[in-house]
Amino acid sequence: MAVQAELVAPKIDPRSEFAGILKEHTAFGNPEGSGGGDRLNSWFDRLLIQSGTEMDGTVLMLLSVMGSIFLGGLAFVIQENLLTTAMGGMVGFVVPIAVLMFLKQRRQSMMLKQTPDMVDELARAARTGRSLHDCFRIVAEETPEPLGSELRTCSRRLRFGLGFEDALSSLPERTGLVALSVFSTALIIHEQIGGDLVEVLERLARTIRDRLTFLGRLKTMTTAGRATAILMLALPPAIFAFFVIRDPAYLNNLMAAEWGRRVTILAVVLDVVGSLWIVRVLKTSQRV
């Protein structure tokens, strides 16, 4: 009778030297750069990460270019007008980026709703007397998507021997949530100076829930204002596109008159300034 020996994989002690094999995200922008190009590329990098897609930035740019060629070519075939062709190309280029922005917003909303329960679960695990590393690993495995994938990424970094400061350093940037930035800071401070972790986590969970309640009320009270702001952003370009598509010579006739040129330039400047201001207000009011 043959006896089969059970092979048990040896346990490897975590060492910080192993962290060098971790794959880092390829970034297009320099976060420390002060130029407009670096800020734009950094925003693009954050959009790719926070949307939760595994898509490479090069692939997204190719999709944008293909969308631009498709819609621009379709507009040219229908009307044979360079202005409508350019408008179609711009819309086609922006569509993939707009989809990513929608995915990012939805993912952040889901993770924010998961955060209080995750913090409570970590507090309950800490009451059992386990180490903070073990508690974090257990909670990361039990937390569902999309927050669970980000926690498991940090857990893998911990298993490679990194401390909480290094393992959780990318969590706020990868999620874009203020609540998870506070959560990471609390764990890092506890690892460095100690303290009553359970009480800190319970207070943090209550604070996040109160913040969610406040944001929900704020969103309800400002629904009409946000809808008006979005309408103000979308209506002028939509009206302009309607007239240009309806009559390709509309813009040429408008710019032929002196008053037409002045009014058009003034309208474009005011619309751009107003759009930038509205976007800034909306962005400030939606910080999570």
Your description of this structure?
This protein has 288 residues and is mainly alpha-helical. Among the domains are: 109-220, Type II secretion system (T2SS), domain F (Receptor-associated Protein, Up-down Bundle), CATH 1.20.81; 222-288. Helices cover 75% and strands 0% of the residues. It contains twelve helices and no strands. The protein has helices spanning 36-50, 57-79, 82-126, 132-142, 147-159, 164-167, 171-175, 178-193, 197-221, 223-246, 250-256, 258-285. The protein is elongated. It starts with 35 loop residues before the first helix and ends with a helix. Residues 1-12 have low confidence and may be disordered.
